[in-house]
Amino acid sequence: MAELMDILDQNRNKTGRITERSIPMKKGEYHLAVSVWIKNDAGEFLISKRSPMKRISPNMWETTGGVVMSGEDSLSAALREVREELGIELSAENGRIVKRYTYPHVTDDGAAHIDVWLFCQNVDINTVVLQKEETCDAMWASVEQIKLMAARKLMFDYDYFDELIVFC
Description:
The protein is built from three helices and nine strands. The protein has helices at residues 74-86, 143-151, 161-164; strands at 4-8, 14-20, 30-39, 45-50, 61-62, 64-67, 95-103, 111-120, 135-141.
């Protein structure tokens, strides 16, 4: 089944057009995506390692994220992505958007408006169920570990990461 997503304008407004995710977007078209961080009471963040089967950046550590599907809102997408990729049910009331930004049109995925979610929630790492097409490992990592992994190019470097550590 094709994954459908709403096409947005530069101001995050729906244009009324829908496209298949696999179809390259045109310049000036945007889609909505989410980046989801989970922070526990120890101040650690749950990160996952991209599957070696991924076309882009295989085996890189990252936070969970993905495209908001047509008709779906940002929160629903955040909860769905974590459920699909990590097998975790997050509580909606534990989450909030901590940043919004726009990612330029640099790949076939097109330009994207990104909602960065932070969920303050303890999760037993032993309950994580990895989606093998997406992820191959998960772990709790401290702020220092994440910064070191990013510096060593083992993890994506999220330029907004320092903004997250003040929450929870």
